[in-house]
Amino acid sequence: MASSTPVRERTRREIVQRAMELFQTNGYNATSLQDIATAAGCSKATVLYHFNGKAAVLAAVLEPSAAALDGVLAELEVLSPAAAQELAISRFVELAVEKRGIINVLQDVLQSIEEMPEFTDLIAAGMRLTAYLAGSPDPLENAIANFAIGGLLNECRRPGEQTDDELRTLCDTALRRLLQPPA
Q1: In this structure, what DSSP letter does residue 111 have?
Q2: Sign of torsion, CA 63 115 94 162?
Q3: DSSP secondary-structure letter at 118?
């Protein structure tokens, strides 16, 4: 029995990898569980053995990004508001550029993500990051942070138009201009 665990883990990883590729290429809504199974070389029943639906597959695809976001939030918790905002901007830009393929997938599900229980923790983490980016509990600053995040995510979802360095520079500059008051 113990020897089958690595096979299960490999199958699960293959499903997640193929799902990520399909979600990035076709979008979440246009990808079916059967598409994922076919790409992973298994049956739909095998996918459903490992995951309780397409949202659970997407949650597995997003696990590394969610863990990275949790790591950033842990770093920010111990800093002053100004230092936390500064670091939040830098880390968010890095995450957005590094995970730019996933951002396109997220944009496909943003309208309905709050209805998916698999993403409750990710949504809460995103709201915490937004508060750090705002640098203040002021509702206007929070709205500006949401606006800035939306623009940054939209810019990151167009792969191939800019190099990572160009995108990093654009996003960092834009966030700082929107979120940090002039000295």
Answers
A1: T
A2: positive
A3: G
Both structure tokens of 77: 């918790």
> Scanning the structure block, which residue is given the tokens 């979440």?
28
- Model confidence at 1, pLDDT cuts 50, 70, 90, reads very low
Tokens for 3? Answer: 């020897």
Closest to 25 measured CA to CA, from 95, 101, 79, 89? 101
Evaluate whether 15 touches 50 at the Cβ level (below 8 Å): yes
Whole-structure pTM value:
0.84
Q: Say how far apart CA 94 and CA 163 lie, in whole Å.
A: 13
pLDDT in tens, 37-74: 999 999 999 999 999 999 999 999 999 999 999 999 99
Distances in Å between the Cα of 84 and the Cα atoms of 93, 129, 130, 131, 167 are 14, 10, 11, 10, 22
N-to-C CA span, the chain: 64
